[in-house]
Design brief:
The termini are far apart. The protein is α+β, with helices and mostly antiparallel strands. It has a ten-stranded mixed beta sheet with strand order 1-2-3-4-5-6-8-7-10-9, with helices on both faces. 24% of the residues are buried. The longest helix is centred in the N-terminal third of the chain and has 19 residues. The chain has five helices and ten strands. Helix content is 30%, strand content 33%. The chain is globular, with a radius of gyration of 25 Å.
Length: 210
C-alpha cells in the first residue's frame, strides 16, 4: 500500500513537471507571475489621479482628468468637452508639452515654461486642492500663449516616448511662446484652450491646422 502511494505521488509530480515544461503552460505561468508581481509593486509607485469638473462658457460641463506618474515625471491631462476635447502630455524629463485636440488632425509641441508651469509635485498638490476646495482663496490662473509655426516635428522621439505615442500618426508642428503685443501680432486666428482648470490657462493659436 505504501509503495503504491509513493508511486502515485511520484506520478503526479512527474505529470505536473511535464505540464510545466510545455511552452503554453510556461507562457501562462510567466504571465501569471508578472501580473502577481505588478500587484505587489503598484503600491510602491507614487502616482496621482485627480478629476476636475467645471461649467463651460456654453453651459456644458468640462471634465478634466490629471494623471501624474511621479516615477516617470510625466503628467497626462485628458479633457472631455465635446468637440473641444483634447489630450496633453507634460514631459518633465524632456521639458516639452504636447497637445492633441480632438477637432484637429494634428499635434502641437512646445517647450515647457518652467517659470510658469508648476513642477510635478506642485501640480499634484494644486489639483488635489482644487478638487477638495482647500487652500487659499481662488486667484486668477496664470496664462501662457503659443502660436503654431510651419516647422514640422518630424523626429517625435526627441521629445520623449510619451509625446511620441500621443502624436504618432498625425502631422505634428512646433509651437512657440509669444508674449504681450507679439501674441496679437502672431497669434491671430482660432485658438485651442488647453490649460488646467483653475490653475493654468494655455492658448495655442493660429498657424498650420487652424
Amino acid at each position: 500500500m505504501c509503495q503504491m502511494t509513493y508511486k502515485t505521488r511520484r506520478s503526479k509530480h512527474h505529470l505536473m513537471q511535464t505540464l510545466a515544461d510545455t511552452p503554453g503552460t510556461r507562457m501562462k505561468l510567466t504571465i501569471f507571475l508578472t501580473a502577481l508581481l505588478a500587484v505587489f509593486l503598484t503600491p510602491s509607485l507614487s502616482d496621482d489621479s485627480v478629476s476636475l469638473t467645471n461649467q463651460g462658457n456654453d453651459g456644458g460641463s468640462v471634465h478634466q482628468t490629471v494623471n501624474i506618474d511621479n516615477a516617470k515625471n510625466i503628467a497626462n491631462i485628458n479633457t472631455n468637452a465635446g468637440w473641444n476635447s483634447w489630450n496633453s502630455i507634460w514631459d518633465y524629463n524632456t521639458g516639452f508639452i504636447a497637445l492633441r485636440p480632438f477637432a484637429k488632425k494634428s499635434c502641437y509641441i512646445h517647450r515647457m515654461n518652467k517659470n510658469v508651469v508648476p513642477n510635478i509635485q506642485e501640480l499634484a498638490r494644486l489639483t488635489k486642492e482644487k478638487k477638495d476646495h482647500k487652500g487659499p482663496a481662488e486667484a486668477p490662473p496664470r496664462s501662457l500663449q503659443y502660436t503654431v509655426t510651419n516647422t514640422k516635428a518630424d523626429n517625435l522621439k526627441q521629445y520623449g516616448e510619451p509625446i511620441d505615442a500621443l502624436c504618432r500618426g498625425v502631422p505634428s508642428y512646433v509651437a512657440q511662446e509669444v508674449q504681450g503685443d507679439s501674441f496679437f501680432a502672431f497669434g491671430g486666428g482660432a485658438c485651442v484652450k488647453a490649460g488646467l482648470l483653475f490653475i493654468l490657462d494655455i492658448s495655442v493659436c493660429g498657424g498650420v491646422g487652424f
